């Protein structure tokens, strides 16, 4: 069993769907959200692979600028800010608060580790009632390596003062699970979208549909 759960934030805890309205308000198709988020991750990963670093907002703004220009829309700062500010206005998935409360009551330490800025989720965690359950809220700004680079997970282990094999990464992203597993953590995959897990990645140690299901699975392990 592990001592610390390391929670991814974007999509794992937060519901990004309201961001589609921000894209529509900027004159872009609502489905551009998916390409924007995937492209932001791609470029962040590429910088990390090259030994460089840029903050999530910088990369996200660059991708959005390209999308606006391709659509013939002036990439004004107000337009870009209007879209990106939506990341600070998101809500938790409904299962997050009750699921995390059960995991906390079971004695697990809980932290977050995001490729975005930790401050972006402060309002969401406060409004969602989970801030008291979180021991640390971390981002990759200190190691300056985006997940899934091993330095990001090792940084979380150093902050918590535990070896990596006493931690488990919880995420909806297979690339995050794979990175954590390769860094020595366990990987708990939340299959919110009921999609096949890629065969190219390291298999997760647990698969659950949501955090309530994860709490059930871990409770069964402890029996």
From TrEMBL:
Superkingdom assignment: Bacteria
Gene Ontology MF: a single term: hydrolase activity, acting on acid halide bonds, in C-halide compounds
Annotated CDD domains: HAD_L2-DEX
A Pfam family assignment: Hydrolase
Keyword Ribonucleoprotein: no
Protein name as it appears in the record: Haloacid dehalogenase type II
Stored InterPro entries: 2-HAD, HAD-like_sf, HAD_sf, PGP-like_dom2, S-2-haloacid_dehalogenase
Keyword list, A-Z: Hydrolase
Species of the source: Kribbella turkmenica
Keyword Hydrolase: yes
Lineage, uppermost ranks: Bacteria, Bacillati, Actinomycetota, Actinomycetes, Propionibacteriales
